[in-house]
Amino acid sequence: MNLASLIQESFTLTCNTEEEGYGIIQALFTAHAIPRSRFIEDIYIFTSVYIQLVNTPFWIAVSAFVCDSFVNTYDSVWLSQAELRDVVVVGGGAAGLQAMKTLITNGVDNVVLLEAQDYLGGRVRTHREGDILTEDGAEWIHGGTPNRLYGLADSLGGLTQPLPDSEYDFRLRTQSGKTADINGFDAATVIYGKCERNSVLKKYHKYGYGKCYADSFNKQYRKFRGKKQEKEAWRHYLEMWVNKDTGLSDWNDQSAKDADYFTDWGNDQWNQWADGYDTLVNYLMEDIPESKVKLSSPVCRIFWGNEVDGDSLGGRVLVVTADEVSYLAHHVITTVSVGFLKRRHSEIFTPALKKSYQRALAVSDLGIADKVQLGWDSSWWGESPLNLQVIYTENLPAEMWWLEGVMEFLTIHQQPTMCQAFVAGDYALAMEALPEETVKQHAVWLLANATGQAVPAPTFFRRTQWGLDEFMEGSYNSYVTVKGAKKIMKKRKQLAKPMVKNGKPVLLWAGEATSDKRYGTVDGAMDTGEKQAFRVIDYMDANAE
Predict the structure, then answer these.
(1) What pLDDT digit, counting tens, does each position of 413-447 carry?
(2) What is the pTM of this model?
(3) What's the rounded Cα separation, in Å, for the pair 180 and 397?
(4) Cα 454 to the chain's mean position, in Å?
(5) H or E stretch at 132
(6) What is the 3-state secondary structure (H, E, C) of 416-478?
(7) Distance between CA 438 and CA 543 in Å, rounded?
């Protein structure tokens, strides 16, 4: 059932508190058996849904999508006034920036990059506030020296080394502060290490990724003599660990076959950028003139047929932004997230994308992993960095159910008075739907209860809302469903297959979701942007007059 059938487009609910208003909305979902995971998805349909607090309207829904008025429209002025370009790159994340850098440094400079948001980097987004530096998205350089970013960061003097585990104040606690069983933690750690290794998942190719972990749990828990009364809590902990690192709502959502293609370099050293991940963005921009980058320029329409409404495109592609600036290009490299592309492709592309590509998108999705970050003037937990692992042996208060998606709090690297938790999947969507103050109160409550210490009011608080970002529709990581990997898309190369007219690649695809072996990583995204840029360069060289 769609929520649109339950509520008119604009309505008012009267309530005394913000929390009560959210309770009304959640009760509506429960009464009509609408899954919580649908909350964010269905709330997008409204243009003016709000809760009326005493005398102040409180908005819970985003306004209409910026490109809604462009759906199924065409204006001949777009073509007649279009700027001519060899290449248009759509999206200014790691893939788009690498594509631009590759094109320009190889002599293709009649290019433009169109970024929907008011910043560059996509899911690389560094937050600075005084002396505070945190990452909303990508945070680590995974894999050590095999990762191209390790050498780059080192050459730029921007590579930091992780602290050894021995320097952390390591605590295992239940949600109420009791010491949790170390044997349960050891069992979970062994299972996680086993299923993460390359090629281990081969026998699970017909199933969901989580089956490897689930099948191993009972045996390992018995082997480590875990406490019977904590068994289900540790099983949940293991799934939250997996979901934190994948962005899944259910660890069986992703095909084990798709997961098995990922190349794990093993020596995951958890290196970071000393002055923020946006150091990479600045590095990539060094070769890209600012005049060739257009921020706050959402692409609303892409016409890639031979003609539109009788107007010939001359073998080119017409790209139109939300402010009706248009470009006529030989090639378009699209690098938007697979979550956004899956949701919006039918509204943007004319003619429709090929059926085979639509089928590939239908079995692909983008997970969501949000961060909740808190900071204080001093580290109330003690002098050492905190590593707090949490299991749930009792049900939390109903309004706090999203906290069950949090399995750890860690001190943020180079920020000794701050800590951070990840929350993924449906738990993340529920957190995003709550008021910020409520999320902060819940996080402080859990920290206080789990540590048994008095937690002062944070002087810094930040939470991400990647699911509510209409140009992302998620964060980490992309995945292929079990059904999709079996019958439709055995490898992700189908998502990278260009649309070709008369031998000319006119629509090309890049981004982490198009990488078989390094999906979900910044280096993987950069590799795909570079690859598609060279595909264009090779075509242009071969067809140069």
Answers:
(1) 999 999 999 999 999 999 999 999 999 999 999 99
(2) 0.89
(3) 20
(4) 33
(5) strand 132-135
(6) EEEEEEEEEHHHHHHHHHCCHHHHHHHHHHHHHHHHCCCCCCCCEEEECCHHHCCCCCCCCCE
(7) 60
